[in-house]
């Protein structure tokens, strides 16, 4: 999907940069059960051409839900398109914010690289070091 949509690709690339450069608050990457989109304010931004996007933390699964996950969404206000990712972690009480940040980055990055009909991606944070990118 992202490859076939230049506006969405611009929004994804800007989001990837913000995640990697710690420009998005750590609260977005905390594993707090019961968090919803209403309890975490969206991150809005613009890219070249004036296209507007919103990045939201849609929710955090309950501990009993397997696998535990955080659901994120990137929405283009200009095209109406959106992409979702799930960041999973089997032992979520021990996960670090940098590891969740890195896994979330990787999930969104995969949407840039995968075939055009991909609109959802899941990444397991266990595959990322506790220090994340650093």
Core attributes:
134 residues, alpha+beta, 5-stranded mixed β-sheet, 5 strands, 24% helix
3D architecture notes:
It is a single chain. The protein starts with 5 loop residues before the first helix and ends in a 10-residue tail after the last strand. Helix 2 links the parallel strand 4 and strand 5. 24% of the residues lie in helices and 26% in strands. By secondary structure, the protein is of the alpha+beta class. It has a five-stranded mixed β-sheet. It is globular. It has one domain.
Summarize the structure.
This protein has helices spanning 6-20, 97-113, and strands spanning 43-47, 51-60, 69-76, 82-88, 120-124. The chain is α+β, with helices and mostly antiparallel strands.
- Average per-residue pLDDT, rounded, comes to 80
**Low-pLDDT residue intervals, each spanning 5 or more residues:** none
Number of domains: 1
Rg, rounded, reads: 14 Å
How much helical structure, as a percent, in the residues?
Answer: 10-25%
Strand order of the largest sheet: 1-2-3-4-5
Shape: globular
Count helical runs.
Answer: 2
Distance between the termini: 30 Å
The H/E string reads: HEEEEHE
List the topology elements:
Layout: H1 6-20, E1 43-47, E2 51-60, E3 69-76, E4 82-88, H2 97-113, E5 120-124
Parallel strand pairs: 4-5
Antiparallel strand pairs: 1-2, 2-3, 3-4
